[in-house]
Amino acid sequence: MRRAAIGERPRPKYVVWEITLACDMACGHCGSRAGKARTRELTTAEALSVVQQLAELGTEEITLIGGEAYLRDDFPTLARAIVDAGMRCGMTTAARGFGAEQARAARQAGMAAISISLDGLRAAHDRQRVLGSFERARAAMAHVRDAGLGLNANTQLNRLSVPDLDGLLDLLIAEGAQGWQLQMTVPMGRAAGNHEWLLQPPELLELYPRLAALAERGRAAGVAFWPANNLGYFGPHESTLRNRGAPGQLVWNGCNAGVYALGIEADGSIKGCPSLPTASYVGGNVRDRSLRQIWDETRELAFMRADAQPELWGFCQSCYYARECRGGCTWTAHTFFGRPGNNPYCHHRALEHAARGLRERLVPIQAPPGRPFDHGKFEIVVEPQR
User: Of 47, 86, 244, 384, which is most buried with the most CB atoms under 10 A?
Assistant: First the structure.
């Protein structure tokens, strides 16, 4: 999610659209607890209306997700409408059932690229997802290339996947991937029940130099490194992680939810970022109000805009970078603590604690209720380094 030029009016430049919650897996870190389709998912006609409304709002790019977007039979129809309306269209998928037929349909519909989820090499990936899903993802990469689509990859960073990162980059280079997006696993949905997979803040001290080295090696081999919302924050490797050859992209400059980003759930619920918890951040439904009304008028989508000041607390409240950072990733903070404004996955923060001989530890204190995009609660323990 990228900031636009300073002074540009907020608009949903980049949209992630869950077109169905149906899924052919039940991954252990799935934030949406995907599996069954939502009740009353948008019809084809309703979805096509949303496409036109997005075009009128100035959207430039839409990524289709699920569940698994390819399980919705009309995904090529929606993709073609997106492209015909002047917007770029892609898809993110774990690709267990994404074969040559689906790849050809995506290409014929005008999709630009497919991003395949790879969360480690075979053992780590299959443990988090489904046995055999790693090889299915590998096969899907070939189908994507053969269809003439751009190939990207995305990876969850957690204690299972991190040991495999160097091998993953080797694989992506060999497969001809063009981009690699990485993000920390957070305790949303099923991941909240597998909290032992989550990285603890002191582990960032070793992770970030390693990510910077991977970014440089990937860039030299033609694989662009894309740090997602909860990676980085003013450590010594920030410019290396965010340098994609364009000016103005070298540092984190705040959460884009409802500023230049938008998330759509399959039943038409609208929120400022696709990852945000449904209960706290849905501003309305396109069946009840126009997309423009929801974007312009709802508090749930406007909380990060220039005239809004997020309430910072904890370490973030007194941080040197508070004004620029504005508490880091809203999704990450909220899924740990039930409110935004204090992000524990910050490199600068981990370095500051280490310089004082301290470290933070995240401890679960409340289980999630078991709904899509839900979360429990954690507390922060600050203790001496050991």
Answer: 47
Return the structure tokens found at 46: 């309703």
Task: Report d(CA 259, CA 306) in Å as an integer.
Answer: 9
**Would the pLDDT of 249 be above 60?**
no
- Interhelix angle 100-108/133-146, nearest 10 degrees: 40
The four Cα atoms 72, 73, 77, 79 give a dihedral, to 10 degrees, of 40
Whole-structure pTM value = 0.94
Q: How long, in residues, is the chain?
A: 386
Cα separation, 46 vs 111, in Å, equals 20
Rg (CA), the chain: 20
SS3 of residue 154 by DSSP: strand
β-sheet bridge partners, residue 381: 361
Residues 374 and 338: beta-carbon distance below 8 Å? no
Residue 152, SS3? strand
Q: Tell me the CB-side half-sphere exposure of residue 244, using CA atoms within 13 A.
A: 14
Instruction: Output the six-digit token pair for 329.
Output: 């990733």
Whether the CB-CB separation of 161 and 211 falls below 8 Å is answered with: no
Q: Supply 335's token pair.
A: 């899924």
- Beta carbons of 237 and 211 less than 8 angstroms apart: yes
Residue 252: how many other CB atoms lie within 10 Å:
26
SS3 for 56-91, per residue?
HHCCCEEEEECCCHHHCCCHHHHHHHHHHCCCEEEE
Mean pLDDT over residues 64-72, rounded? Answer: 96
The amino acid present at 207, given as its one-letter code, is L
State which of 31-35, 40-44, 229-233, 304-308 shows the largest mean pLDDT: 40-44
Q: What share of the chain is helix, strand, coil (3-state, %, to 5)?
A: 40, 20, 45
